Amino acid sequence: MNRKKAITVAVKKIKENHIIAANGYISRDLFSVGDKTSNFYMIGSMGLASSIGLGLAIKNPKKQIFVFDGDGNILMNLGSLTTIGTIKPKNLVHLIFDNGSHESTGGQPTCTKSINIAEIAKAVNIKVFQTADESQFEQILDKIKKISGPIMIVIKITNSKDVSSRVLWKPLEIKKRFMKTIVND
Amino acid sequence: MKESYQNKMFDYLNKMGIENFVGVPDSTMKQFIAHGLKKKKILISTREEEAIGIAVGMALSNSNSLVFMQNAGFANSLSTIASLVQMYKIPLIFLIGWRGYIKNDAPEHEKIGKIQPELIKSLGLKSMIIDDGNWKKACQWALQQSKKSILCALIIKRETDE
What's the complex ipTM? Predict the structure, then answer.
């Protein structure tokens, strides 16, 4: 399963829920396969999707907040896992699309080929699921609807040459339409 | 800044609608943070950029935040300020401790303390230096900036070498 496929599977199950997407190919793939107003494309500030997600989860306890993160991204802000594990937001679901590389910048390796992020997350009180299989990933996404968080799903993905276009919304449009969905529902 | 004024400043900002106080501690604002902790209104993060990220998530939920940090952490956060807070026009108030303001502060603060005004200027970040006399006026100014979706900073000088 490559990232675009994995993101396609995820958005079908997540439906209208809010998603904070990390910069680079993750935002681009999400924009390409499942653009909607309740997506926040974090097009810069690498590493901070999990923290923005935490802020949203704290302030919107009745809404399930999804973070679409990459291995390179979370490695830049591993401390955020300790904060999430301390605050324990029940409504935060953190998806890590893990290809063991910085694919957006040319496929340079990250250390998740030898270090397992799932084990780090377990150590800080986060409930963790791991998969590399499409149907198992679908089952996990169904299962977590009934589990209280914080939850992390590590999806091992393969690299691909299929590159999505850049997010066409301007930053202020991304913010404006996203905030409307937060306030109105 | 005197301890009693730091308490008053916290209470005033909280009363005026700042709901969240997120950041990394600095001794310059020790009392401000201690007072907020007593009121269970403080969230301490691992790094300043993480604090900014959390505060942005809260701001996207229409909940106003102040992010506190030392100027060393402010220097860490330049890229995040430019490519997240300013780019998306997220209204936050920063409270920054100015280490390296006096000449005999610890040596690690000397360089950042010296270039801090230039860093603030280069970012186009609106700021005010606060003290015992002007804190209320400065807070009112910051709240106005926030209403206009403009990021701004309140700066507290470190005036002792203790």
Answer: 0.96
